[in-house]
Structures are given as C-alpha cells and as structure tokens.
Design brief:
about 60% helix; mainly alpha; 6 helices; globular; single chain; about 0% strand; about 160 residues
Length: about 160
C-alpha cells in the first residue's frame, strides 16, 4: 500500500554495506557484554560513510555530506562505550530529516521512510545489538522499556491519528 521510492531504497542499501563489513569482522572471545569487535565495525563505518553518502547524493546536494555523515556515523551506537540507545536512534531520524530538508527525499517518501527504511534500520540494529551484545545506553533497568528503540512507539501511535 506504499511504494518503495528509489531514493529511500538507495539509503537502505547502505545497510547492506554495513552488514558486509560485519561479516568480515571476527568477534572477540570471552566477552559477556559489549563485544569489542563492534569498535572495528564503528571504525569502518566512520571511514567509509563519506563515500557511501557521496554515492547516493546527486552533485548539487553533496555540500551536505559533512552534516549527514555526522548523523549517519552516530546512528549505530557508541563505538567507544560499545552500547546503543534511543539517542543513536534519534541520530538516524536526524539523518533522514536532513535528507528531507536538502530535498533528497520528498513528501512522497514519508510513508516509505517509516514503513520501509526505518524498518530496515531496526532490523540492522537488532542484528548489531545481538551480534555484538551491545548494552543499552543509559538503561534504567526494569523501567527501561525504551532501552534500545523508542521511535516505533511514536510511529505506531501516529497511525491512530490518521
């Protein structure tokens, strides 16, 4: 009931590149929480993201790469603390918002961004969380319903308003 738009799909393909890097990085042994191999993945994301983002943007939008890269790089967790939380998720949302503000995405992409792109992001993040045993950033224990993700609750609630 929504179309996967070409530009939304091109952003989702960046997740495939991250998964390919994950497959090339061996896990470190004997770590119950926060496998430090995640730091290597983080280094690769930071190193390659400029080229990845440059590859999807048309020439007239390439001036935004510096800001886009910052949000993109911070979307997958803290490579130092080896954790992930809602602040990282917000960085991905900010990355998407910037793509709208610069005109890469259009209002016609709204539905595909939530129902396709954000879903793909969540799938990747769940894989990363499980594979590297990331701890929730800023967890509040039993009250931490939103330890890893919170935007699905907001997007789900928004559907009741339509």
């Amino acid at each position: 009931w929504y179309q996967r738009r070409v530009r939304v799909t091109s952003v989702a393909k960046l997740f495939t590149l991250i998964k390919e890097d994950m497959d090339q990085i061996p896990l470190e042994n004997d770590q119950r929480f926060g496998n430090k191999a995640f730091r290597v993945l983080g280094e690769r994301i930071v190193e390659k993201s400029d080229g990845w983002i440059r590859g999807i943007l048309p020439d007239e939008l390439k001036g935004a790469i510096v800001e886009l890269k910052s949000y993109f790089d911070e979307s997958f967790g803290s490579y130092i603390r080896v954790d992930y939380g809602t602040g990282h998720e917000i960085n991905f949302l900010a990355f998407c918002c910037c793509l709208y503000k610069i005109g890469y995405f259009s209002p016609d992409d709204y539905v595909a961004t939530v129902f396709f792109l954000f879903r793909e992001y969540l799938n990747l993040m769940r894989k990363i969380q499980m594979w590297y045993k990331l701890e929730p950033a800023g967890s509040h224990g039993v009250w931490g319903l939103d330890d890893y993700q919170f935007l699905p609750f907001i997007f789900g609630s928004a559907q009741f308003c339509v």
